[in-house]
Model the fold of this input.
Amino acid sequence: MIYSLYMLGGLVCASRFVHSARMGLGLCIVVVIVGMMPRFWKNRVPPSIVIVGLLCFCTGFTHYVWTEKRNVSVLPEEANAAFSGIIESAVKFDGNRCKFIVRMDRLDNKDLPHAERVQTTLYFRDKASWMKAQQTLGFGTRITGEIELALPIAPTNPEAFNYPEYLHWQRIHRIGKIKEAQTLSYDERSLSFTGAMVASQQWLAERTTRLFAPESAGLLAGMLLGAVDEIDTDLYATFSSLGLTHVIAISGQHITLLIAGLVYTLRLCGVTRRRAYLATALFLPLYVAMSGSSASAVRALVMGEFVLLALLTGRIRDGWNLIGAAFLIMIGYDPYYIHNIGFQLSYLVTFGLLVFVPPLTARFTVGPAALCRLAAVTIAATVVSFPLTIYYFHIYSFLSPIINFLFVPFISVIVAPLAALALLLGSVHPALGFLPAKIVDLFLLPALQLLQMIEKGQLLRSAFRSPSMWWMIGYFCWLIFLAGWLYDKITLNWKAKLGFILCPLILFGSLFFSWSKKEVTVTFLDVGQGDAIVIETPRKTVLIDGGGPPPRWGEQPWERRRDPYNPVKSVVMPFLHARGISSLDLLVLTHGDSDHIGGISYLLENMPVRQALVNGLPAKIEIEKKVNQLLHEKRIPVVEARQGQIWREEPGIVWRVLNPAQRIVTEEDNANSVVLLLEAYGFHLLFAGDLEREGEERLLRENLVEPVDVLKVGHHGSKGSTSQAWVDRVTPKLSVISVGKENLYGHPHREVIERLAKRGGVVLRTDVCGAAVVHIKRNMITYETVSVSAACR
Done:
């Protein structure tokens, strides 16, 4: 175990070194000093252990750097070319497209120096080609045709998932698009062990959908087979919010239950104990390979095999050595495992269970031993996983420990064994698995409904920003202090008690409360062809619109995707959560166009909103009607915006409504867009919605506008807005155009950009620069963009 910690130190230092030599070397010095400290403790560690540990540190550092140097691409950054390659992943169909990984070995009729993996998307224009691909494509299929290669798209919003970095750790450097399925030619699938495992998983997942109710089939396919893509996206979000994703992921819990179940069944069938252990050890790798070989599953597999080996040889099982050996084996195979969230959580929780469960169980003396141990496991897993949970996922439900305490045994003891039995029998014939499957549905469906009700209630749920490195160090120091007390290594005198209480109070207090800074931050998010603007003042959070999914006119049933793109779900809410925002003080719906409110329904269903500001026109489209219905059902106060309304948040921050007019003369949505002026510490920001030339002229005639520092350009820079007279009056120093890349409307218009540029101000486009963030402090205003290209400076 000690050597694995030294190895981890070397890997972490190397991961920093490849990006910044100065930071990496500085971290190396710190880690080496810490690694040598055991020699100076009161009970000194033998020098041989420290020397071997430092060698492991150097080995980990060298191994990561060597792997990184070899992880390069030979493919062009952009190309339209003929290619040939073999599919080496499951083919995942979703509407009018499917995704898979191609190991490409030929490009433009030339052999590549070495085969390279490409994340590929194949699009279908007709149902016939879609059906043919479903019958033909699979792991091991060789395909030949035309492909469009490009670099993975970097994140365009703050706090967004870094897809290029994720693919880099998968040794993938290019993404490919095949837009014409008819241009492809297919060869028969080559037989392979991995292909057989992938096919087995797909066949069993299909059998699961036939046995169980639709609401539970996807969950059970993910839980038993590792087919996470089969899980309903809303249900997965519920499990994630309540801290139950470990129930879905193939992990130590699954492997432990599998080992116990197989050994028990084989023993019932008269198999000797030794042969039962041996048969289980041979079956485990097949199961993990079939389930997708996730990091947590591989970790559980390695440790499970070591346990079975110890049982076969009659040796004592040492959890510390098992976890250390499993770590060294996995890292030796792939050092990039350290970046895998599942890997980190799996090892951290296992480490925490080994440390905290024995002393906690010993101290719990009231009640049955099984319940005491379950309580100890729940507490240990919660306190150890909490920092990583909020660091990566930002949302945490404080009901999670209670739900885990009740739900995990229910799944482990009742649902999982019955579901596995139903799937096993149903694999022979569906009729054989009918009865146990219905029993599973009878128990599971009400439980899932209850979980969704709890999640929708949003009780005791908070959003957190990713903690700083110093916060993480402080938290783990507190855990070390807690472990020392549980093992009676620390005597709790009044000073120790004071530190024991104050440390978590300070740590958690810093998460929930922060010093109020005299600063306003305005983020113009990139949501494609639409608007979504987040304004954070010292006391409140305001969201202006939320964007909407792109129109899909004439879409056929076979073209519909399982989880269509929704900018509120994919961009707005993840950003709010990453900023530590779990509720909105004001939601401004400028008007009823779908590119402004198309995703708002999802937000209203999943985030508390204290007040909404609307233009007051009657709903014209179904999306707008649904939003109004949800506002009513959620009992959210709705205020109709009218010119002249003013409200002050605090000294220096004033909001003014410039549009709609007091008396509405037309029911055209754009003309009645809610237009807001924000005065913050002497600076002026104008949010023009989709206001067009006629509305601009009225505001100019009535002298309602004045020069501003920041302008959200009206109607995405369309030709019918942002007139010359408007620009001459407003004279913005910074103009932001929220617009989708290669949109169908030709926004923004060249004339609009030229008018704004002639005034000498900076013009930012979200399709070019990504999100734009404006920071306003007293006597200072600055901006930054996610993209750092020259066009965005």
Remarks:
- The first strand starts at residue 79 and ends at 87.
- The chain is about 50% helix and 15% strand.
- The mean pLDDT is 88.
- The first helix runs from residue 2 to 17.
